[in-house]
Amino acid sequence: MIPEAAEKPPDGRTKTAKQEQSNDFFRYPIFEHKSLSSFSPPLSDEEKIIKLVFEAFHACKFEEAEALLGNLYETTDNRYIRIYALRCGCAIDIFLCNTRRFFEHYSILSAELQADIPHKKELEECIHELDATLGKNEYYNNEFKILPDYPYHESFLPHLTSLNAVSLAFGNRNFCLAEIRAHEINCIHLKKSDSLVDLQSMHIYLGCAYAFVNSFDEMTYHFKQALKIAEEHNLFYVPALQYYYMKKTFRTALLDFSDDFENKLEALSNDIHNRYAAFTDKAAINTVYRLLPRDDFLLLYFAVQGYSNKDVANTMHMSPGTVGRRYSEIYAPLGVKSKAEMIELYRRAENNPTP
Questions:
Q1: Domains of the chain in sequence order
Q2: pTM of the entire structure?
């Protein structure tokens, strides 16, 4: 059985006799947080769903986001909408502590991104963000961990580039400031483009960066700007995510806000991190997901679904012999000796999601 993802043509369409022209259209990225009037051509009905889902997610209304998303990734005829819907599903699954659905969404998303499709490089950010959030992305982890006194956590926004990380770690303050100020220009462009969540994320990033180099006036300014966006547009996810680790640093920026606002930020921050901690405590993540690189996990998923080595080879553009060798290399990290034992381990993890 060939995975359905491998049968789609490279332009984002399924093989249907009739296809609406709007389904062929793709814009990257879909800025869900822009006003509807900012889009030309107007959003399709499916894009509007994605927009509403992301608005609910960034308001930390994860259950509402799940209800809005529904089964869009199964019903859409547009591959790009499908990829974004899967990305949304993975993020929602994390904060609803649903490991089974996360495995499903993550694996299908990985399979979709195996194909040689237009905009593939940009779309791969969908999976890289998930990898970084779950601590699987070695690039982000290694760069973050070299920082002295850095409040490390897997879910810290992955905007800090390796260049900034190295310059901070080795004390090259002037070089780091030059890099930071280059990102100030991004704030201006993002503000003009009405991209509120990206603008808010950039303010948080710059606030953290200025804190690292002890430029506290600039730090406070950027944190305030991010918090104003949260207050005016109910976009709390990004600041709440970082507030958990930098409460003292945020304190000056919060002086201009009401006690009710601060209490809401803290409550949402605690809720986000409690949900995240519960998700990562699941046995499925500890026993399977964290032990394998993403491509190897995808091989495991195909095996569980009953795909032959030949089917997997066709999908992942490698020879059947290479697939067989890759499977044998997976056994040791998982502590198994055969494909049957590997599949059984996965199923045990799914059927027993709690430690």
A1: 1-134 (no CATH), 151-271 (1.25.40.10), 281-355 (1.10.10.10)
A2: 0.71
